[in-house]
Write a structure and sequence with these properties.
The structure is a single chain. The chain has 442 residues and is of the alpha/beta class. It folds into 2 domains: 2-118 and 402-440, Urease, subunit C, domain 1 (Roll), CATH 2.30.40.10; 120-394, TIM Barrel, CATH 3.20.20. The chain is built from 16 helices and 16 strands. The strands form 2 sheets. Strands 1, 2, 3, 4, 5, 14, 15 and 16 form an 8-stranded mixed sheet that branches. Helix 10 runs parallel beside helix 11 (309-317) and helix 14 packs across helix 15. 57% of the residues are buried. Bound molecules: zinc ion. Zinc ion binds at residues 123, 125, 280, 354, 356. N-formimidoyl-L-glutamate binds at residues 190, 356, 358. 4-imidazolone-5-propanoate binds at residues 132, 190, 217, 283, 359. Its EC number is 3.5.2.7. This is Imidazolonepropionase.
């Protein structure tokens, strides 16, 4: 099953042969995959947490801890009951039964709450300005969603100041953090001109290490009569200006956006510049996106709502994660992606918000978990795995999405005795405490 494939093999701190480092866009010392502190690097032994200067915190009294490491506990989620976690510096130093917890500088009593890894939201569009409330309102009154609505946001984003866009991104990252999201990817795609796309990426990189160049979101109005010319811009001067600021390259492969040949040109040009592909694929209709993603070794194919058997087979046989974005189907009253079909085929599935002002204006991973369980055939355990370790897999990261020695100290306490409550109590603000990189931030 998907949970074990990427959920195991990384119990050691940072030394796994499978550990992949990010390809750039790091903002400094605290970038993802950066060298682990000496306390964690020296090994998983509890004694490591006693190292000199870093302040350690023991979170004890956890009713159920989700580690996502089958070596540490039951099942694919690696469940540990009556558990404790020790955070030391930015990292997890120790996780296991409370009775065996090593000493730490400070202690937090979880008082019977459940604890899960910080959510990894591997797909969002946060660099934007403007309001589309009326579009949503109209759509809920019966008008079907069309990709062209993006142009409204493009106009508003181009007109916004840098300060305004920074403030918007900061607001949504903070909003997500309060709901337990400790890693968030975000994209350009509302500039659609060389300087505007580069600006969006620089702004995004100030708020997250996971930045994606999406110049190929739609063809902007200036190129309405010359889409080939726009693809030439995206794969030429725009890519030159944007590649230094991004880790990933993405394309909206869809009717009304970019066809298979155009998407291939965009992704291969980006890959030649060191950007790793990810693809908006098969959201609104059947098409070539998913198979192209797998063929090009994309990290993820996102949406996967309209899939043929051949698409599912390709995902099952390839390395590409299927990222499902139920907020989009919710907000457009569209048919749900069939997560059950993908999981039964052995595909690795991630859940993400797709947070954007047009088709999915939620930053809540718990909401997406609830939708996935209620409407997409996922079990509560599968949905939680997909929202944590699955998201990490979609970002090719093993340093987060799990609570295991050496991993980032990204931990969420729930005001609930079981992580199943994330789906069982939809819409309820269950996140009561969040640590990111070992620091309590909520
Ligand atoms: Zn998207």
């Amino acid at each position: 099953m998907s949970g074990t494939e990427t959920g195991s093999g990384t119990a050691g701190p940072g030394g796994s042969p499978g550990r992949r480092r990010p390809l750039g866009a790091g903002t400094g010392a605290a970038g993802p995959g950066d060298p682990v502190p000496s306390a964690a690097r020296s090994g998983p032994a509890p004694a490591a947490s006693a190292s000199a200067s870093a302040t350690s915190t023991a979170v004890t009294g956890i009713a159920v801890l989700v580690t996502n490491d089958p070596a540490l506990g039951e099942g694919p989620l690696g469940l540990v009951r009556n558990a404790a976690v020790v955070l030391d510096g930015e990292r997890v130093a120790w996780a296991g039964p409370s009775r065996r917890a090593p000493a730490a500088d400070t202690r937090v009593d979880a008082a019977g709450r459940a604890a899960v890894p910080g959510f990894v939201d591997s797909h969002s569009h946060l660099v934007f300005d403007g309001d589309r409330t009326e579009e949503f309102n109209a759509r809920m009154s019966g008008r079907p969603y069309a990709a062209g609505g993006i142009r409204t946001t493009v106009a508003a984003t181009r007109a916004a100041t840098d300060e305004r866009l920074h403030a918007n991104v900061a607001r949504y990252v903070a909003e997500a953090l309060r709901q337990g999201t400790t890693v968030i990817e975000t994209k350009s795609g509302y500039g659609l001109a060389t300087d505007q796309e580069a600006r969006a990426l620089r702004i995004a990189a100030a708020h997250t290490d996971e930045v994606t160049f999406l110049g190929a979101h739609i063809v902007p109005p200036e190129y309405a009569d010359d889409p080939a010319g726009y693809v030439g811009l995206v794969t030429g001067p725009m890519l030159d200006a944007c590649a230094p600021h991004a880790r990933w390259i993405d394309v909206f492969c869809e009717r009304g956006a970019f066809d298979g040949d155009q998407a291939r040109a965009v992704l291969t040009a980006g890959a030649a510049r060191g950007l790793v592909p990810r693809v908006h694929a098969n959201q609104l209709s059947y098409g070539p996106g998913v198979r192209l993603a797998v063929e090009l070794g994309a990290a993820s194919a996102d949406h996967c709502t309209h899939l043929t058997d051949e698409d599912v087979d390709a995902l099952a046989q390839g390395e590409t994660v299927a990222t499902l974005l139920p907020g989009a189907e919710f907000s457009t009253r569209a048919a749900w992606p069939d997560a059950r079909r993908l999981l039964d085929a052995g595909v690795t599935v991630a859940l993400s918000t797709d947070c954007n002002p047009g088709s999915s204006f939620t930053s809540s991973m718990p909401f997406c978990i609830a939708l996935a369980v209620r409407d997409m055939g996922m079990t509560p355990d599968e949905a939680l795995w997909a929202a944590t370790a699955g998201g990490a897999a979609a970002l090719r990261r093993t340093d987060t999405g799990r609570i295991t020695p050496g991993a980032r100290g990204d931990l969420v306490l729930l005001d609930a005795p079981s992580p199943v409550h994330l789906a069982y109590r939809p819409g309820v603000p269950l996140v009561s405490a969040v640590w990111r990189r070992g620091e309590r931030v909520h």
